[in-house]
Amino acid sequence: MGTIRLTAAEATIRFLAAQRTEVGGKAVPLFGGVFAIFGHGNVAGLGPALQAAGKRLPTFRAHNEQAMAHAAIAYAKTHARRRMMACTTSIGPGATNMVTAAAVAHVNRLPVLFLPGDVFATRGPDPVLQQVEQFGDPTVSANDCFRPVSRFFDRITRPEQILSSLPAALRVLTDPAECGPATIAFPQDVQTEALDVPEDFLRPRLHRIRAPEPDARELADATTALARAKRPLVIAGGGVKYAGAEAALAAFAAAHGVPVAETQAGKGSLPWDHPRNAGAIGVTGAASANALAEAADVVLAIGTRLQDFTSGSRALFPQARLIGLNVGGFDAAKHDALPLVADAARGIAALTAALGGWQAPAAWTRRAEAATARWHATVARLTAPPKRGALPTDAQVLGAVNRAMPRAGIVVCAAGGLPGELHKLWRATDAASYHLEYGYSCMGYEIAGGLGAKLAMPEREVVVMVGDGSYLMMNSEIATSVALGAKLTIVLLDNRGFGCINRLQKGTGGAPFNNLLEDAAPAIDFAAHARSLGADAVALDGVAALEEALPRAFRAKRTTVLVVATDPQSSTQEGGAWWDVPVSAVPRDAAQRQARAAYETSRARRRTGA
């Protein structure tokens, strides 16, 4: 076997460019590109290597390291973890800017490869610019911040180490159970050092995502529990989408008459109008799904990590027997569930076959249908246009967007109050149409995430729903979207501050404090700001004006920002479930006493167990 003399950086980039994955039966590049912001830690090593790669591994330049990592994460999410991106930065702040995004990827089980530059492995010129010095441990650098938020972490101190480190990182990135961010810290001197690379290391490799079958004993236990159920409920999580299990889920629900509730990550697993889709589950859930959850005796949780917003802080279905169908054993056994460790599609198919002609009691199926029909009527009422002249609610704004949205459109959102409104009220048409980052609830994800979704599916209309708070935290990738021709429609809801947390503050017995900006900040001309970043932008007076502007924005070739003022005090009260936000145990007034009493009552219902 021959060898090729390359720098460590060149070998790394050529290796990444050679990776392939299978999508729709076709082999395509595993990496859609590399986001790069150069500095002294990567400009002389990875920089020339990326330039030489050209179209084989395209390089994209963003304006903020956290934002470009969000875009890379959204790209992988839109591709259901079948494709991904890498991100490289210099050492120091460029690297640590990505740590928040690494946490987003880690929590949401999404693949992204981080290649931050690092200080000199030789330590010859130490301390270099931006070097973090740990007085008692010279091996520490700023990149050690990535360790707790990476599924795989390595620091390359010799060029030969990439020959084992890169394949190990790819194993994690493409493993459905371990999937998450991989970080390879790359000292700037090592990037430029040479090694003899085996030709076989650079050959194309096809990665097929593993889809494990269920264990026969676990399948038997799950089947027995379901067959005895009188009030069964399915919770569909993101794992349904990542396994491509939407059709299997629809067939299961139809064959057995079982209603399906959806998490934030799982929303769109079934179209909103599918007869068995009971709506969103949990704290931000629909009244229909939550009522079924409270009554259910068996809950089949598919591809969800059952975080507190899904489980109502473990109080929503405390009486139910849980079955955890999940590709990861860690998630399958949560809440003392019967574990069924398997690929979602294969696990659902196995359950369907094992259950044979079993069906949920007809009365339960009819109860779910009636509850869902009532909820659909509620959604129509809440999202209808307001009276002319009234300051609209978030629900009324998203209703206008949803009605105007092309069927193949994608809505992107993240933190604040909007995800709750969207989870309850948005009518998703397919698995890709609803793109929410709510595992880490990261403000600032929205616009960058929209960019990543657009790069993944350029043929689909991408609409970003963002509040003024998140917009002010991170808006720079508007300029990137314009530069790349990755056109977005951004609907900016301006409620003058952090309206969601202001409402939570009052709901836990507190007084409004430090959230709304009415008296603390000048009015911001968001449209003018967006235009300064290269977008087309307009401030609109209400929902009627928004409805007129949306078709023009969808036809536009350039990113368009539509600004709408909204009511900071209003949110959808219908639906929802308890969320454990601790209330003062030493209440000081009537509001706090009332909030504490309600808190203790709800907490007493919480499910115990692992």
UniProtKB/TrEMBL annotation:
Keywords: Hydrolase, Thiamine pyrophosphate. CDD domains: TPP_PYR_POX_like. Residues 220-351 form the Thiamine pyrophosphate enzyme central domain. Residues 416-564 form the Thiamine pyrophosphate enzyme TPP-binding domain. Its EC number is 3.7.1.22. It holds the Pfam family TPP_enzyme_N. The keyword Hydrolase applies. Residues 590-610 are annotated as: Disordered. Belongs to the TPP enzyme family. This is 3D-(3,5/4)-trihydroxycyclohexane-1,2-dione acylhydrolase (Decyclizing). It comes from Roseomonas nitratireducens. The lineage of its organism: Bacteria, Pseudomonadati, Pseudomonadota, Alphaproteobacteria, Acetobacterales.
